[in-house]
Every structure is written in C-alpha cells, then in structure tokens.
C-alpha cells in the first residue's frame, strides 16, 4: 500500500489523481491533501479519502476547513510554510507535485531533501531550478517520476534502456499546437482568452491551457525534458502533432525510434508515475487505430509563437534565465486572463524581463527565490 501526499488536490491533476486512487483502494491510501483556495472541494475530498492531514494555503480559510474536519479526526494546517513542511511526514511514501507554477518549488525541494520520491506534474519546478532539483534528487536518492504526458512517454520509452546506459540521440517532443495552430500573425493579434482557454484535446487548468495556446508550455517542457533526461536542448525537437496520440518519441544511438501512444488522458501518466515500475489494470478508454486512420506531424512556427524561441534562448543561457522567463510568463498569463494585455504582448513582456534582470550562472536556492521575486515585480511594473 502506497501512502500518497497530493499537493494541489483540487486542481485538474489532483482531482484526476484521486480518481485513479479511488479505483485502486488496494494499491493506495491518501495521507495528505493540500489546496490553495478551494476549501469546499478540499473538505469534500478529505471526508471521502480520510487523509491524516490537510493543508489550506490561504490562511483566511483555516477555521472554515478546521471546523468542517474536526469531527473526522483530520489534522488541518494553513499557510505556505505548512505546505512546504508537510512533505516531511514519515508516513508519506510518495509526493504528487500538482501545484501551479513557481508555488511548487519549495515543497518539492523539501520533499527531495527528505528522500521522498516525487511524481512531478508541476513542470515549473524543473524549469526554475532544474540543476538544484536534480542535485537534491541524486544526493537524497529521491526519484523524480514524470507525470507530464510527454515526459511520461519519454520515460516509458526509456524503460529497459537506463539499465544498459543506452543513451538518447534525440527526443521528439510532440505538441498538439493548441487552439491557434496554423493562425497567421494577423489572426493572432485579436485572439481572446475565451478562444485560448478552449484546448482541442486536453482538459487542463487555466495556466497550462494558456501556456499551450502560446506554445510556452512546449518551451517549459523542453527545459523539463533537458533536466529529466540529461539531453541537451539542441537534441530536443518539437513536433506538432494535432491528434495528440503519439505522446513523444526517443531516438537512440542506433537510429531506432520508440514512441509511446494512447488517447490523451492524464490519468494514465498519473497512474504510471504512482505505480512505477509496475503497470496495473486500468479502465481508461482504449485507443483504436481504426478511429485514427491518419496521424499527422508538422513543424512549429517560431515566428508566430515567439515563446518557444525564448525558452530555447533561456535554457541556452541557463543559470537563473529560465527562472526569470518562468516568472515573467506567470505574470503575462495572469495579465492575459484578466484582459490586461493581448496574446502577442505576453512574449514582449517575457523578453523585456529576460533582458532586465541580473544574470546569475549558478544560483543558490535563495538566489532563485530572489530572482523569481524580482522578475515578478519587474514584469508587473511593465503592465
Ligand atoms: Mn504536457
């Protein structure tokens, strides 16, 4: 029985993880649930799954949650510090990191420092501080198991290859292209958030859906892949694949390519990360070749989607540059969601912030935190 801590249990990944867990009561129990703001759903989940502890990061909602769970003998804590500390509990076997953006960094770092394996959905943790996160993972023998569908695909392609140190020649990172695939620059000038929030294949949270529309998501994933699999960014190629059936592919030194396929359903990579290296039964809908007589592949258009180019530039510089880019992007996405800037203006905001903030080659954790805060403040001042 694996005892799971779900950081971000009320979000898209968190709720799907609880679906997986509820289908396998003999495999998993829930030890910790955490939410930022959605107290009602957190309470409902806690009553159903009976965790030892829940955390609500918004301190104003503490007494509301505490009163609701008091009679259920569930411990309740509030605030970001409690969120970062809860992963230390001895009774946690695996931490599912499903927080949004930078907020996941400190809890995941603390989980690794305490030797907890991390099933990581929250890619920004690796984007912001990949070098440090990898170092801690190795030092404390705490595995990072990818939940992001592309990275789960690559990880599944690597099964049986790690043991023999078979090295990757190239990664093909697939992208659906999002709702604006094939749009001209003129068309992109007037797109709205309502259009951007309608992803053709995947049902996800607002942050990652906007990132998918702007291709920043693929930029973040390219950086995530570099840190997870030790592949230089020049050996990662983004391939637009509108059907989202091939979830990514790995080319080995003999030229052979392995790909992982399936219907787009996040529950599969979530389950694999939680049960790795085993596979267990699932009742997710099965892929049929007859429903997809054509799978197609295209090159991305970096002229129209500048974020992808900015991400390659950020990882080429490395140091704190991806952290700067990520922070500016978080500001840009929020501003776009609140109708403060246009779709195109997001890339300008990110680029200007990357030019302005001081570069650090090998940042400490404190310097990452400082870089993030400075970048957020500067990007906000540009709005
Ligand atoms: Mn993905």
How would you describe the overall organization of this protein?
The chain is of the alpha/beta class and 383 residues long. It has three domains: 2-146, NAD(P)-binding Rossmann-like Domain (Rossmann fold); 151-263 and 294-306, no CATH class; 319-383, RNA polymerase sigma factor, region 2, helix turn helix motif (Rna Polymerase Sigma Factor, Chain: A). It is built from 16 helices and eleven strands. The chain has helices spanning 12-23, 39-49, 62-69, 80-86, 105-113, 124-139, 149-157, 185-189, 193-196, 206-214, 216-229, 267-275, 306-317, 321-337, 345-356, 365-382, and strands at residues 2-7, 28-35, 53-56, 75-78, 94-97, 118-120, 144-146, 168-175, 236-240, 246-252, 257-261. The strands form two sheets. Strands 4-3-2-1-5-6-7 form a seven-stranded parallel beta sheet, with helices on both faces. A four-stranded mixed beta sheet has the order 9-8-10-11, with helices on one face. Strand 10 (246-252) and strand 11 form a beta hairpin. Helix 2 packs parallel to helix 3 (62-69) and helix 4 packs parallel to helix 5. The longest helix has 18 residues, at 365-382. It starts with a strand and ends with a helix. The protein binds manganese (III) ion (MN3). Manganese (III) ion is lined by residues 148-150, 221.
């Amino acid at each position: 029985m694996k005892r799971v801590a779900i950081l971000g249990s009320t979000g898209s990944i968190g709720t799907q993880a609880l679906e997986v867990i509820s289908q396998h009561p003999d495999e998993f129990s829930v030890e910790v649930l955490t939410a930022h703001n959605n107290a009602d759903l957190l309470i409902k989940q806690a009553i159903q799954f009976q965790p030892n502890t829940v955390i609500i990061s918004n301190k104003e909602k503490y007494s509301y949650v505490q009163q609701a769970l008091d009679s259920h003998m569930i411990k309740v804590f509030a605030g970001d510090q409690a969120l970062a500390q809860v992963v230390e509990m001895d009774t946690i076997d695996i931490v599912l990191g499903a927080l949004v953006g930078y907020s996941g960094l400190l809890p995941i770092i603390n989980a690794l420092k305490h030797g907890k394996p991390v099933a990581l959905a929250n890619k920004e943790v690796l984007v912001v501080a990949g070098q440090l996160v990898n170092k801690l993972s190795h030092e404390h023998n705490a595995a990072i198991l990818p939940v992001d569908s592309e990275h789960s695909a690559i990880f599944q392609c690597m099964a049986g290859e790690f043991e023999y140190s078979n090295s990757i020649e190239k990664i093909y990172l697939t992208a659906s292209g999002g709702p604006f695939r094939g749009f001209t620059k003129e068309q992109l000038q007037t797109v709205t958030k309502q259009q951007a929030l309608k992803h053709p294949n995947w049902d996800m949270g607002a942050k990652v859906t906007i990132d998918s529309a702007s291709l920043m998501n693929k930029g973040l994933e390219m950086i995530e892949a570099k840190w997870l699999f030790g592949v230089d960014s020049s050996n990662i190629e983004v391939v637009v694949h509108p059907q989202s059936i091939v979830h990514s592919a790995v080319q080995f030194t003999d030229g052979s390519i392995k790909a992982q396929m399936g219907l787009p359903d996040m529950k599969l990579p979530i389950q694999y990360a939680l049960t790795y290296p085993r596979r267990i039964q699932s009742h997710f809908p099965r892929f049929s070749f007859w429903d997809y007589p054509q799978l197609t592949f295209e090159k991305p258009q970096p002229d129209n989607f500048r974020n992808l180019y900015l991400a390659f530039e950020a990882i080429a510089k490395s140091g704190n540059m991806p952290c700067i880019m990520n922070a500016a992007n978080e500001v840009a996405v929020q501003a776009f969601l609140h109708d403060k800037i246009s779709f195109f203006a997001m890339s300008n905001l990110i680029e200007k912030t990357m030019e302005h903030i001081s570069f650090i080659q090998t940042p400490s954790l404190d310097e990452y935190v400082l870089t993030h805060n400075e970048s957020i403040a500067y990007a906000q001042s540009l709005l």
